[in-house]
Amino acid sequence: MNFKEIIDNVVADGAAYCDIRKEHWNKTALTLKDGVPEMIVQGEEEGAMVRVLYDNGWGCVGTNDIDNLEKVAERAFKMAKKSSEYKRSETDLADIQINRDKVKMSMKEDFREISAEQKLSYLKELESLLDRDFVRSTDLRYRDFLVDKEIITSEGTHIQLQIPRILTYLIITGKSDTIQRASEGYGGTGGYEITEKTFDKAEIVLDRLETLLGASTPPSGRMPLIMDPHLAGVFSHEAFGHAAESDLVASDNSCLKGKLGQKVASDIVTIKDDPTMDGYGSFPYDDEGTKSRVRYLVKDGILNDFILDRENAWKLDMEPNGGARAEDFRVKPLVRMSNTIMEPGEMKFEELLDEVSGKGVYARSSGGGQVSPAQGTFQFNAQEAYLIEDGEIIRPLRDVSFNGFTLETLQNITGITDELETGIGHCGKGQTATVSDGAGHVLISEVMVGGRE
Q1: Which of 177, 231, 239, 369 is a good FRET partner for 272, with 20 to 30 A between their CA atoms?
Q2: What pLDDT score does 451 carry?
Q3: What is the pLDDT of residues 290-312, one digit of tens each?
Q4: Is 56 exposed, middle or buried (0-12, 13-18, 19+ CB in 10 A)?
Q5: Span 3-207: which CATH code?
């Protein structure tokens, strides 16, 4: 029995909606730690997710047993009926255009044709560039994966996709009076050709570690802070982007609830989430078969849009914009970001420095942190940082963190440079999603900086 027949049978039994998302994955994972291969994994897997909506209840079942998908669909249907009995709120799907399309995202050099030995040699070549007296340990990680995806819905949408992604992480540690760690990653949506640009990251991560080993502890208190493009991109993704995810908005777990059309940032701030641009989070259709498009979340300081799947678009009476993504066939799609960008401004970096009178901090690259989309709060750590005094960079700092309220901080942005740099990452929300983020250098006129002075 083909997928359409399975879907038709479920709908004939009374389901309001059904879709099947079949996926075939080809994956490679390599880890080289201190010159020794710790992991070499290559493999393929295949499976499917069946979703059924009955009345107000969902049934979602993932399986790698493609041959028995009819029984899986029956399980999903029964689950949806049972769920509907206990559901207290109504749910439905906002309408979308019925799409029938086949898209292969390009690879100039197919990484499936590169042997594991060649990929390991690539990591060893990278490691040779990290041979410095101050480097105590190296950890290099390579990942590639190609997914062939087919999405069929009871409404008539039929999408076939092929999406390749690849990345490399460089992590090095050293010790002075404390142990310091520096990391840098590079990757994207494409083929093995992307690895060529990773070699440029070796010098960056070496300079970062050497700087940290000679850095001092930072000041603390409210002061100006300049974020580099990587950290500003992470801020845009973590502090603001999660709050703009429509499932959090619809469930009253976002500080942006009820603020559509209102001013939430300074006039110079525009933040978009764009799965159509070249990035690690790119895709032509989301996992519900909705065609991807750019979402301008903030436009000139005004909250303009949310990231929307079909269910939460219906709840918020808005138009779906391709915001449904699943980690793989085992799980249902969730509302997720793609490539989240704070758009460039008009200033130069030297002009941002000139705006800092007295004491301030220049923070570079993310070292982790935490956010609360509901409360609208954040705390971030910078991998490296520098003290600014009266517009001059004075000395390197380490262990710099800063925190505050997201909307207050967005209002305190007084300068953005005219360049754009992007980075890559994996975003966790119960599932992992491939994402990019980026910005120019961003000046926050006042934020709480944590330190030891």
Answers
A1: 369
A2: 56
A3: 999 999 999 999 999 999 999 99
A4: middle
A5: 3.30.2290.10
* pLDDT of res. 341: 98
Tokens 């009995």, residue located: 85
- pTM for this predicted structure: 0.95
Share of residues in the chain with pLDDT > 70 (%): 99
Tens digits of residue pLDDT in 313-354: 999 999 999 999 999 999 999 999 999 999 999 999 999 999
Give the chain's end-to-end CA distance (angstroms, integer): 70
User: Which of the four pLDDT bands, split at 50, 70 and 90, describes residue 178?
Assistant: confident
Mean pLDDT of 264-292: 98
Among candidate residues 142, 145, 150, 190, the one with its CA nearest the CA of residue 167: 142
Cα 6 from Cα 61, distance rounded (Å): 14
Within the chain, all domains assigned CATH 3.30.2290.10 are found at: 3-207
Contacts of 144 (CB under 8 A, 6+ apart): 27, 28, 111, 164, 165, 166, 167, 192
